[in-house]
Amino acid sequence: MLRASTLAAALLLATTTLTACGSSGPGGSDDDSLDVWVYGDASTKVQRAVVKRFNKTSEVKVNLTEVPGDGYTDKMRTSMGTPNAPDVFFNWGGGSISDFAKEGMLVDLGPTLEKDPELKKAFIPTILEAGAVNDTYYGIPMRGMQPVILFYNKKVFQDAGAQPPKSWDDLLGLVDTFKKKGVTPFALAGTDPWTELMWVEYLVDRYSGAGVFKKIQNGDASGWDDPAVLKTAETIKSLVDRGAFGKNYKSVNYTADGASTLFAKGKAAMHLMGSWEYANQKANQPDFAKSGLGWTTFPALPGGKGDPKNVVGNPTNYWSVNAKLKGKKKTAAIEFVKFAAKQDYAKDLIANGDVPTTSDATSLLNEHENPAYARFQYDMVREAPSFTLSWDQALSAKNTPSLHTDIQKLFNGQLSPTGFVAALKKDIK
């Protein structure tokens, strides 16, 4: 799971160098090499492989620095604009790089995409667009897609004689059905407010479409006055009061696998979570992941104007290029990020259990460890008219604490729906 907003500020830098010529450290490489930073986790082996392929043919070599996840965001923010800044670096797009974009620290990749139409067509359009800042491309997709999906426990549903919800009325009916059977309808990690944010994101989108948050993301705070925001808050209150999340959600966590365990053990029937939930269950509850985990889309809302095919979540992660680069190093950096569009890169992602964001990956999905799940995700995202980046990553990082606090207070009954809207208008500008 790659959530910038959940990373701690602790910092320990670990470096892995993959080049024939040595590295002089982050930001200190000579003219014949590039410093590339990546979030260090199990998926980094895909980036290690592409570095090896690139270095076989490029005069300018890449040094790959793996920064541990708990310090990545802090390291990135304190390094940019200094001599120790990376030449190319991993990020989440949107708010994670908006300050760098404003300061002119990033290469505008729009001209590159225009000169190379095949590169632009190589990615699912909504994925490419989701990483932009004010409609300017500063990132090339470089990891798997991460949409938010409505998961369900097949056995719990079978025991209740129930079917996955196809409409909002179905969803509300299931809340009542599972309550009567003593099962929490939806697992919710209330100690981690970013999990509650997923509900807010989908509800606002389903009520009024992606344009509401797009306005807010582009700096127009009047978007908080859209009726969809108040309707969403009222719907959240109604769900809480109805018992959709049970009685103990305030003390349930995600990072320590609390919500996922309740879900896998049949104590909860459904779980709205990012696509990484599959990998999480595979690691911790492998039998459940193999045969008990079901998935579907978030339903439309009665009278809602948003397209029910729209998706929210983390479209993917991106490579961005430092604007300090000139000449052959800049050329090499752009050539390096283009490698993420190649078929062999997509194959490596699939071998790692990810679903690529490239537009021609359909034929590769049968090689995924769970082809049905991979195809569901891929088709869901490819057919989505819009893919909204998680709000806490689309907005400037300075807004994340207030956003999380306000959402948690809404779910905990400490803010009324109208109070929630007022708080957002005051806190997020």
TrEMBL record:
Listed InterPro entries: Bact_solute-bd_prot1 (IPR050490), SBP (IPR006059)
The answer, when asked if Signal is one of the entry's keywords, is yes
Instruction: Identify the stretch annotated as signal peptide in this record.
Output: 1-20
| Keyword Transport annotated | no
Q: Which domain of life is it from?
A: Bacteria
Q: What is this protein called?
A: Putative extracellular solute-binding protein
Write out the entry's keywords from A to Z: Signal
Q: Name one Pfam family in it.
A: SBP_bac_1
* Organism encoding this protein: Streptomyces sparsogenes DSM 40356
Q: Which PANTHER family match?
A: ARABINOSE-BINDING PROTEIN-RELATED, BLR3389 PROTEIN
Q: Which PROSITE patterns match?
A: PROKAR_LIPOPROTEIN (PS51257)
